[in-house]
């Protein structure tokens, strides 16, 4: 793992630590030490936007396994959940109200109880959520050696006559059938209120961790909530599980009451048995895109990396994919020019971090890109989007969001739209999510990351009304210090 820091917003803040996977695929950025700031307000009286409650309000029920916190009801008009970097809270907001100064608190932070939050997804009934959480500095199996783990939050009503005593119960799913020697790759999604999906790498509790790229074979897991206790198990083993492939972000059309015929799921994948062609493999840490010229970072290995592609599959009403992976075609073949092959510190390239729209008509993904001004420089990605402002070779290239409409064969129609950037060099625009505006229009919200020596770091969320144009940006005032935005689809 590699640790990186950013500056807290406001006075008196403690810099949080941010962590990413170092084994070849970006995982959710995790806040593991909350900054402390004063309160904020958007001028309304019915939203909990005041100072973050003290950590004493959360109760440790079982170390590394279960924590209870005060219940903050989900605002039914909110359509985006995100991690507020200035406080460490999970908040919600409405992208139809971009000028609101703050979102509503959903989950209080509890870093002093050992766990910091990352990306969150909310069930279609608003009663549950999945959050990526990491325990910074952990060196034991009990807390998964500090790697990201999936946590389920459930609303406990307690006394029905007293709504003020309701609770969010946070449960570590590594103790619910998944295993503790695990790394969640950050992203979760909901098929319906009783079935969620995530991608993770799981090893036996008594084995060591991976050391080779080709051992990084994350797969899709299901969280089934139709019984008294959550059950975690592999999802669609016959159709989608492949031992020689890494599976990236999974995103699903939402439903209630079960799956429906034709329900669509997007996922990202690269496979290590990929035919060895120039369009399918790229060199990492090489000065030249053909693997020659020496290393960008001396002492680090030079090796080839297979391309990431985005796929869409349809399910039947039993939540089973109607086709196997070998029968699927990617939504497009990722561009393989020299700029797209300029990898950064994380060895990955292609189309990644995909999201499907709630109506299943659109898909968005983030494509690795280096510096268009220096296409022949294989090291350009290491100088862009720095993860350590003191290290000019700590960059992770950029992830530029692209949107396309899907045809009947689940492939992109026409030329996909690359959403614009407003900085030089271009900022990274990762983790797209589709949101339906109050008027029914479809929009995309993506993250923005930009760091160059001597200038303030940018980490926020941006709305783009892509049907108007690739540069139809709408800043979200409430998400000026936010990451890991995911749409809320209440049904």
In short:
The protein is an all-beta fold and 491 residues long.
List the helices and strands and how they pair.
Layout: E1 2-5, E2 17-20, E3 59-62, E4 66-70, E5 80-84, E6 90-93, E7 104-107, E8 116-122, E9 128-134, E10 149-156, E11 167-172, E12 182-192, E13 195-202, E14 219-224, E15 231-234, E16 245-252, E17 263-271, E18 281-284, E19 303-306, E20 309-315, E21 351-356, E22 362-369, E23 398-405, E24 417-418, E25 433-436, E26 442-450, E27 458-464, E28 473-475, E29 482-487
Antiparallel strand pairs: 1-2, 3-4, 4-11, 5-6, 5-29, 6-7, 8-9, 9-10, 10-11, 12-13, 13-14, 14-15, 16-17, 17-20, 18-19, 21-22, 22-23, 23-24, 25-26, 26-27, 27-28
Task: Kindly list the characteristics that best describe this protein.
6-stranded antiparallel sheet; mainly beta; 0% helix
Q: Can you give a write-up of this model?
A:
The chain is mainly beta and 491 residues long. It has a domain at 1-39 and 57-72 and 108-219. Helices cover 0% and strands 35% of the residues. It has no helices and 29 strands. It has strands spanning 2-5, 17-20, 59-62, 66-70, 80-84, 90-93, 104-107, 116-122, 128-134, 149-156, 167-172, 182-192, 195-202, 219-224, 231-234, 245-252, 263-271, 281-284, 303-306, 309-315, 351-356, 362-369, 398-405, 417-418, 433-436, 442-450, 458-464, 473-475, 482-487. A six-stranded antiparallel beta sheet has the order 3-4-11-10-9-8, with no helix packed on it. A four-stranded antiparallel beta sheet has the order 7-6-5-29, with no helix packed on it. A four-stranded antiparallel beta sheet has the order 12-13-14-15, with no helix packed on it. The radius of gyration is 21 Å and the shape is globular. Residues 1-56 have low confidence and may be disordered.
């Amino acid at each position: 793992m590699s640790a990186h820091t950013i500056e807290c917003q406001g006075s008196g803040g403690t810099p949080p630590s941010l962590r990413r996977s170092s084994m070849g695929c970006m995982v959710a950025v995790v806040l593991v030490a909350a900054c402390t700031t004063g309160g904020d307000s958007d001028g309304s009286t019915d939203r909990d936007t005041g100072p973050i409650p003290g950590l004493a309000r959360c109760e440790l029920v079982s170390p590394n396994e279960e924590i209870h916190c005060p219940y903050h009801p989900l605002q039914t008009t909110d359509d985006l959940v995100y991690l507020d970097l200035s406080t460490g809270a999970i908040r919600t907001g409405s992208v139809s109200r971009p000028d609101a100064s703050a979102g509503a608190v959903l989950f209080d932070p509890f870093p002093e109880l050992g766990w910091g939050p990352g990306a969150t997804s909310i069930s279609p009934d608003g009663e549950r959520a999945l959050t990526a959480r990491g325990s910074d500095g952990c060196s034991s199996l009990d807390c998964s050696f500090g790697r990201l783990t999936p946590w389920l939050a459930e609303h406990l009503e307690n006394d029905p006559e007293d709504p003020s005593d309701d609770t969010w119960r946070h449960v570590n799913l590594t103790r619910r059938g998944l295993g503790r020697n695990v790394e969640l790759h950050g992203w979760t999604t909901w098929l319906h209120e009783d079935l969620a999906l995530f991608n993770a790498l799981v090893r036996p509790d008594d084995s060591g961790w991976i050391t080779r790229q080709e051992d990084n074979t994350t797969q899709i897991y299901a969280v089934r909530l139709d019984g008294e206790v959550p059950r975690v198990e592999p999802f669609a083993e016959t159709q989608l599980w492949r031992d020689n492939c890494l599976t990236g972000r999974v995103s699903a059309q939402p439903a209630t009451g079960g799956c429906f015929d034709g329900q669509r799921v997007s996922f990202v994948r690269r496979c290590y048995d990929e035919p060895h062609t120039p369009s399918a493999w790229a060199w990492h840490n090489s000065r030249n895109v053909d693997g020659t010229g020496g290393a960008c970072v001396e002492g680090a290995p030079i090796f080839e990396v297979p391309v990431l592609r985005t796929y869409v599959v349809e399910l039947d009403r039993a939540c089973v994919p109607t086709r196997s992976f070998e029968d699927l075609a990617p939504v497009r073949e990722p561009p393989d020019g020299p700029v797209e092959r300029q990898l950064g510190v994380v060895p990955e390239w292609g189309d990644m971090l995909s999201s499907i729209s709630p109506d299943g008509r659109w898909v968005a993904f983030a494509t690795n890109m280096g510096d268009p001004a220096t296409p022949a420089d294989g090291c350009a990605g290491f100088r862009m989007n720095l993860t350590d402002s003191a290290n000019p070779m700590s960059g992770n290239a950029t992830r530029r969001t692209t949107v396309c409409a899907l045809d009947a064969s689940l492939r992109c129609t026409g030329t996909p739209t690359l959403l614009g950037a407003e900085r030089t060099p271009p900022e990274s625009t990762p983790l797209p999510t589709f949101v339906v505006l109050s008027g029914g229009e479809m929009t995309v919200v993506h993250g923005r990351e930009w760091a160059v020596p001597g200038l303030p770091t940018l980490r926020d969320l941006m709305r783009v009304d892509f049907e108007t144009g690739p540069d139809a940006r709408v800043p979200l005032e409430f998400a000026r210090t936010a990451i890991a935005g995911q749409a809320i689809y209440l049904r």
